[in-house]
Amino acid sequence: MTASRQVLCVLLGAMGVAPSGCALHFNMTDPVPDPGDGIRVPKESKFASLVKDPGETVSLAGPMPTLVVATNPAPPPPGTILPPTNEMMSTSPPAVPTEGGGSAGDGIWPKPRPVQANEPFLVAARAAWDGRPDRVADALRPLDKPTQDALRPLLLAGAALAMGQSASTPQDFSFSAAQLHAALAVVERRAELRIENARFVAEVRGFRRFDPLPDGFVFQPGQSLRIYAEITPLVADRLHGGGTGISLSYVMRVKDERGKAFMLIDKKGQETPVLVVTEETDASRGPMAEKHFVWEFTGPRVPGLYSAEIEIRDLHTGRVAKKRLVFRVGGT
To answer: Which end of the chain has fewer CB atoms surrounding its CB within 10 Å, N or C?
Structure first.
């Protein structure tokens, strides 16, 4: 087909009046005539071919762009060091908690709030820095009494240490230490009472001086048992008989594995399911932030699994600490 006939067919086709038998062909040669046997043999298509191997490219027929088939790269051989990713190259600083001085939910630091110039703590801290202990007490007066008693010696000792007024002689340091101990004692009055280092022992010679029995030790029926434990923190207060010191109440129960109470023998030689002992220690024996106690009793005669339940109460503050020790009594 000549060029003029091609242009004519295009115009007629656009007008919708192309003559019958007129086919439009672009960038193609004239079709191969029918062989005349009534059977049309299709030409081999070169439009596209299947990909045989990963990364192979295929070409479309004509002036079409090259089609690239993307495949996952093969894993690198062992020992290959890969280049850093975008996440590894990031230099952004880690997130910082926006509330409180510690991590969220740690329960240690309070949430920040607007600071007022007349905050009792700030006014008292300034008065301590100026060396005016009388103004420290006045500034703290809006706070509750235990908080006043804790902050007053703490601020005075801190200001003196910061200004170097308590750093000249050991005696000066002793005075600051006494102030810090006074502040700590007020805080410990409201701290949790704890039973520590509780265990069965063979002998006790004093505070943290004992011979422990091995774990899983099996007692003989009717054998004498000793329990050693320590209680802390303790604070001194006024005693009923005068003076100051600590006042504690000790309670112990022993039960079998079914929860039935084992009868203990009190100091009067009478059977009781609960042993109760009270103790007062005068502060004249020295400062006492912690102390030990020893329970000694005759164990069960029936083999089996038992538990000793200990309860200690600070009679000054009402704080209570509890501990449970499991032990076994074997056969004869």
So the answer is: C
State how far Cα 252 lies from the chain centre: 34
Q: What is the pLDDT of residue 287?
A: 65
Distance CA 46, CA 52 (A): 16
Rounded Cα gap, residues 31 and 55, in angstroms: 36
- Give CA 236 to chain center in angstroms: 34
Report d(CA 32, CA 25) in Å as an integer: 13
Q: CB of 150 within 8 A of CB of 186?
A: yes
Looking at residue 248, its amino acid is L
Residue numbers of the chain with a pLDDT score lower than 50: 7, 10, 20-21, 24-31, 36-38, 41, 46-48, 60-61, 66, 68, 84-93, 96, 98-102, 104, 166
SS3 labels along 231-285:
EECCCCEECCCCCEEEEEEEEEEEEECCCCECCEECCCCCEECCEEEEEEEEHHH
- Cα separation, 143 vs 267, in Å, equals 47
Tokens 């191969």 -> residue: 32
Dihedral-angle region of residue 26 (phi above 0 means left; psi in -120 to 50 means alpha; beta otherwise): beta
pLDDT of residue 82: 53
Give φ, ψ of 158 to 5 degrees.
-65, -45
* Token pair of 325 as six digits: 């020790």
Q: What's the pLDDT at 27? A: 47
Tokens for 270?
Answer: 């009478």
Nearest Cα neighbor of 155 from 241, 3, 143 is 143
Say what the pTM is. 0.58
Among 314, 176, 185, 192, which residue's Cα sits nearest to residue 250?
314
Instruction: Tally the residues of the chain.
Output: 332
Please work out, in degrees rounded to the nearest 5, the angle formed at the alpha carbon of residue 264 by the alpha carbons of 262 and 270: 130
pLDDT digits (tens, 9 = 90+) for 182-224: 888 888 888 899 999 999 999 999 989 999 999 889 999 999 9
